[in-house]
From TrEMBL:
UniProt-recorded name of the protein: N5-carboxyaminoimidazole ribonucleotide synthase
Gene name of the record: purK
Gene Ontology cellular component annotations, sorted alphabetically: cytosol
Enzyme class, UniProt record, top EC level: ligase
Function comment: Catalyzes the ATP-dependent conversion of 5-aminoimidazole ribonucleotide (AIR) and HCO(3)- to N5-carboxyaminoimidazole ribonucleotide (N5-CAIR).
Keyword Lyase tagged: yes
Species of origin: Cyanobacterium aponinum (strain PCC 10605)
Length: 379
């Protein structure tokens, strides 16, 4: 039987979900204020309204069996009234509630015994006393792609960061001297079935993700530790849906949770081409009561490279996309009409066939170099 799923948000995550929806026998309904959003053309219907417009979500709910999210910019209190009227949200609002604010997230994980970096609320300048430079300042809410995160190396930089953030509620945390950044996608259904994806390595430049390699070149103990964290976290949140966990790995093998995104995530884009069930299909399966698919890789590994904007322009970048495709890559272009510095315009996945993990890592690095040299103007 066809199910109708509402998605709050219409960007590339909703678009990729809408692309796989027909295979799951699902129709997608979107709520977004932007007519040019990627997902709009694929949805059965779009409610054009801001993502935190609760009356628009009430309208969306009329068409849908269940509503899910593509971003964290939601009005939880407002949506609670719809739950009372019988609207079904997955993930549940109670699962989202500790996750939408970075301070609440850290506090929740700490209270549940998960490893996190040392952190504190910023209320007055004396809160900096227990931190030394470098330290990290983060907006508690609405930060994405590093927009709300500043790595502060000196008192002068601290002053300008505080001026930049002005009235924004902030959190202070220790700078973690990580060896690698890792990420894992994990999913849970309403019956409690859990699936975790391979642990991937992610690489950020200026706080924006440049590439992801799956599986990460780490030892089995760390993979198992992270998979166990993911499963435990899903249960402790009584979570239904998919989530992405970003972690820091130190050179002594210690892992700390950086952040949890209660939705599909950039670090899981490789699953679209490389896994038996993509993160987007998995999200739909978890929220519509299906048996969950397999998360296995279809090849030895995969590398995902983001195509980030590097200029302000209106271009489709067709020649570069064609050239990248000729490398044997899957190119996903989000159809955004405007490019700007650091904006995610698309991504590329290349399947890796080397059997030895070291050789595969090398193969991935070569691919990153090739794709980036085609995509970015020579630096
Ligand atoms: P966003 O939510 O915008 O993605 P994050 O808080 O995940 O921002 O930070 C983006 C990137 O900044 C991280 O992937 C990491 O590279 C760096 N970063 C964030 N917090 C820390 C930290 N405490 N120590 C070291 N690097 C950090």
């Amino acid at each position: 039987m066809t199910k109708n799923v509402g998605v709050i948000g219409g960007g590339q995550l909703a678009w990729m979900m809408a692309l796989v929806a027909p295979q799951e026998n699902i129709k997608i309904y979107i709520q977004t204020p932007h007519e040019t959003d990627s997902a709009v053309c694929l949805g059965e219907r779009t409610i054009f309204a801001p993502v935190d417009d609760v009356s628009a979500t009430a309208e969306l709910a009329k068409y849908c069996d269940v509503i899910t999210f593509e971003n964290e910019f939601v009005d939880l209190e407002g949506l609670q009234s719809l739950v009372t009227e019988g609207v079904c949200f997955y993930p549940r609002l109670t699962s989202l509630s500790p996750l939408l604010d970075k301070f609440d997230q850290r506090s929740f994980f700490q209270s549940q015994g998960f490893p996190v970096p040392r952190f504190s609320l910023y209320e007055s300048d004396s809160d900096f006393q227990s931190f030394s430079f470098p330290l990290v300042l983060k907006a508690r809410r609405h930060g994405y792609d590093g927009q709300g995160t500043v790595i502060v190396k000196s008192p002068l930089e601290l002053q300008s960061a505080l001026e930049k953030f002005k009235q924004t509620p902030l959190l202070i945390e220790e700078f973690v001297p990580f060896e690698k950044e890792l990420a894992i996608m994990a999913a849970r259904s309403a019956t409690g079935e859990i699936k975790v994806y391979p642990v991937a390595e992610t690489y950020q430049e200026n706080q924006v993700c440049r590439w992801v390699i799956a599986p990460a070149l780490i030892n089995q103990d760390i993979t198992e530790k992270i998979s166990a964290i993911a499963s435990k976290l899903l249960v402790s949140l009584d979570y239904v849906g998919i989530l992405g966990i970003e972690l820091f790995m130190k050179n002594n093998g210690e892992v700390l949770i950086n952040e949890v995104a209660p939705r599909t995530h950039n670090s899981g884009h490789y699953t679209l081409d490389a896994c038996e069930t993509s993160q987007f299909a998995m999200q739909l399966q978890t929220i519509t009561g299906k048996k969950l698919g397999n998360t296995r890789l279809k090849s030895s590994g995969a590398v995902m490279i983001n195509l980030l904007g590097y200029e302000s322009a209106q271009s489709e970048y067709l020649p570069q996309r064609k050239e990248i495709e000729q490398l044997g890559a899957f190119v996903h272009w989000y159809g955004k009409t405007e490019s700007r510095q650091g904006r995610k315009l698309g991504h590329v996945t290349v399947l890796l066939d080397e059997k030895s993990p070291e050789k595969m890592y090398h193969q991935a690095q070569m691919m990153i170099e090739k794709v980036e040299s085609i995509w970015y103007p020579q630096r």
